[in-house]
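Milestone M4 deliverable, item 7.
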Amino acid sequence: MRFLAILIIATLLIIPVLHAADTLPSAISDAEFWKMISDFSERGGTFDFEMYMSNEVTFQTILPDLLRRVSPGGVYLGVAPEQNFTYIAALHPKMAFIIDIRRENMLEILMYKALFELSTNRADFLSRLFSRKMQALDTQASVDQLFDTLNRGERESFAQNLSGIKYHLQKTREFPLSADDNQTIDYIYNAFFRGGPNASLTTFGTSYNLLMRQTDAEGRNRNFLASESNFQFVRQMHQKNLIVPIVGDFAGPKAIRAVARYIREHNAEVTAFYVSNVEEYISSPRSVWSAYCANIATLPLNASSTFIRFGRGGRGSFLGPMPSFVRSC
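Output delivered:
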């Protein structure tokens, strides 16, 4: 009887632990993926300048410290375009949501999604991204070798590549993009084609070429294009529809709260949230900042959940604990 009592108590203690394990999906259907984009998103807004690539050259410097704080798994949240792929490749979350006030950013992430899924390796990806011919390279090729080869490549069929992107999104994946959405993808992809890898695809910043060659604080390049394994991890996340772009204001009434509800329903937690310098734009009036604080408070966190921030005026990238922010905010 004593043994039976101990067994019952142990079982009762174990059941909540088992129930608390996250139930994040290993893959999401195309229909569910588009439904999440539609249901979680808010009406698109505007930003002060065009931004089709990161302008934060320090975005990798925090990675050694971040990797000491954050464990793989859970959910990654981010904002803006391609720098998220580097953080995803480094952190290995189970799922990611990229939340940006601009609908253009959501569509750029979908453009990237198609390019990842259509490309078998990094050289193929870069060739499609910029519509430049590239010779076959060894899978162990460095970022320097990739871009040196890309820079020497001739331009190839932009129209054919663009048609392939839109066919993949609308026919293969069956995402119901509007005419305006298609025009936006045309515009963004044309910016990559016209500018090429040596152009700055943001109002303030370096070139795509040089940004991909940056390193972390220990001198290691952890970019999503730095290794074939990094690229393939992000590619598989896209193939499984596990990187979900959402249109939303950080201080808005819907997007962050909808994402928080989804994460909580799956017994998961946010491990990292890349907010860039968005907080500088929503710090006033007080009602907007309060709305942002309230939204962050809805996110399920753990003791090591971490903000990835960027400070202007030379501060660069830095980290901050999310739980203490929620308490003080």
